[in-house]
Each structure stands twice: as C-alpha cells, then as structure tokens.
Amino acid sequence: MASSGDVAMMPTGLKGKLASLEDFISMQNEELAAQRQEIESLRNDKTGIEDHYQAQLQELKKTMVGDVQRLQDEVKRHFAQQKAENARLQQQITTLKGEKTSLQQQILGLQRRIQEIEEQVGCVHRARVSRSWLTKGADQDPPFGRVALLESGKGRH
After folding, report:
1. Low pLDDT (below 70) residues in the chain
2. Predicted TM-score of the model (pTM)
3. What does the record list as coiled-coil region(s) (predicted)?
C-alpha cells in the first residue's frame, strides 16, 4: 500500500493521471528504443563474428586444399618412382636368374669335361703303371695298390 507521502505526490485528477501515464509510456518507449539498439548492436556483432569466422574457414579450406593437392602430387611422384625402381630391380633379377642358369649349365659342362679328362688321364696313367709293374715282376705291389690294378683289369687275383 502507498504511504501518506506517496499519496501526496500522485496526481488526483484525470489530467494528472494522464500525465503520469504519458511519462510512463515515454519511459517505456525509451527503454524499448535502448533495447532495440542493444539488439541491433548484438546482431551486428554476431554478423561481424560470423563473417570473421567464415573468412577464416575459407582461408583454412584454401590452405588445406593446396596442402592436400601438394601431398597427392608428392605421393603420385613417389609411387611412380617406386614403380620404376621395382621394374628396374625385377629386370635385374630376371637378368641375374638367366646368368645363374647359364653359369650352372657351364659348370655342369665343365664338370663333365673334367670327368672325361680324368677318365682319359686315369686310364692312360693306370695303363702305364700297370705295364711297368708287370715288366718288373708280379711279386711287388703295384704303385697305386691292388685296387688300381684291379680297376685297370690287369690284376690276377
């Protein structure tokens, strides 16, 4: 409830009440205008912040697209280099396998030739030894032992 001092300040007539309402409406309009200015200021701030972050986002996209493209190009280049290196190494492997096969065939041929030569030399050498032993006497052991004599076919056991 209003105190006796407040009652004295309140207008009692219709004109006083009307003036009081006009003052109240005026204050409310001023408050509304201030709130509208605040809303407009906040909207402008929001738009500025959105524009700022949108620009940063576009810059990041641009940078990242460039980085990704550069990395893709680098990967493609390395892939092509590796592919060429693999082909070169595969060609070397094929060449070395061919050389290995050729060398193995040459070794087998040389081993056969050595065996043939050893057989020829062995037969000639054994025959000479056997003849000299037979001319010296059968009471002595042959120089390469009885096995050599038996192998030559001249031994009589």
Report:
1. 1-11, 125-157
2. 0.45
3. 25-120
